[in-house]
Design goal:
Length: about 300
């Protein structure tokens, strides 16, 4: 499913998944677009695939500003429409998905001008996972709505997507920040757009969906750190600075404006302080704490 048009590509933008924290990547793009660095292609997984595909469709400052307006208009019900309580228990008993994909389908159709991935201004690939075979699937061509619904099909929350005779689920299951996929497609220089981890939350997630998203964010962050360490000697990798401390869950869409603003400011400062010339700083991806107490000191001592 990989397109031939990115065969000789050198620079890639890689977008991680992260639910509502995908808004962070919009702020990063607002600052990064000023550097004049243009990717040869983009790769994204889950919500990162939505941002990557939209940017690939219009890789300009105006395009980023339009993406910002889309994000500012998103409410939780546009992504995770929760069913009535009685219906919810029926879904649990029959082991079906919790949320309908219809609102997300509508959001994609309303905001993407290209019907097929291969028609975007810049080549773009999205990552999904084969439900039955367990392998990563790189989608670089075909219907954009189907591809994006597949890469965002979080197991248990959304239904699998039947795409070209494969049942596909969220790309985060196998490769949430697809650095390896970018390398496979020829990247020699990679800019990673992370979303971050809810490292400063003081209360546990509320509800099943939020709990699933929180546990996914932990796995996402650990995998990203491991992949950067694994590949940084083979290719040039730049990690844009994730927001830290961060107390917003991947299920919360009420603080989008704040996330975009903070990410834009932090990325701009990172660029000004020669972040583009430095190795990826993995400290914010490793386990860390923001409230010092006896328990945290013990945990840090054991890490």
């Amino acid at each position: 499913m990989a397109s031939k048009k990115i065969k000789n590509a050198k620079t890639a933008f890689v977008f991680a998944g992260g639910g509502s924290l995908g808004a962070v990547q919009v702020g990063m793009l607002k600052a990064f677009i000023e550097t004049g660095i243009t990717p040869d292609f983009l790769v994204g997984s889950s919500v990162g695939a939505l941002n990557a595909t939209f940017f690939a469709s219009d890789p300009t400052r105006n395009g980023v500003l339009r993406l910002e307006q889309i994000w500012l208009g998103i409410k939780r019900q546009n992504i995770f429409p929760m069913p009535p309580l009685r219906t919810f228990f029926g879904l649990i008993q029959s082991r079906k998905h919790i949320c309908s994909p219809k609102p997300l389908n509508k959001l994609i159709r309303q905001n993407f001008t290209h019907q097929c991935l291969e028609d975007t201004e810049l080549p773009c690939s999205v990552i999904a996972t084969s439900l039955f075979h367990g392998h990563e699937v790189i989608i670089s061509e075909g219907h954009v709505v189907d591809a994006l619904l597949a890469t965002t099909a979080i197991p248990g929350i959304f239904p699998p997507v039947n795409y070209r005779d494969l049942y596909l689920i969220d790309g985060s299951v196998t490769n949430n920040t697809p650095i390896s996929a970018a390398i496979t497609q020829g990247a020699k220089r990679i800019f990673v757009f992370p979303t971050g981890i809810c490292c400063a939350r003081k209360t546990p997630p509320k509800g099943l969906v939020e709990m699933l998203l929180q546990t996914m964010s932990i796995a996402i962050t650990h995998r990203l750190a491991l992949d950067i360490e694994k590949f940084e000697k083979a290719v040039e990798i730049h990690l844009l600075p994730p927001l830290c401390p961060l107390d917003v869950s991947m299920f919360n869409f009420t603080r989008t404006k704040e996330l975009i603003s903070r990410a834009e400011e932090k990325t701009a400062d990172w660029i000004k302080t020669d972040g583009l010339e430095k190795k990826a700083n993995l400290d914010t991806l490793r386990p860390h704490y923001h409230k010092q107490n006896n328990i945290n000191r013990l945990l840090l001592a054991d890490s």
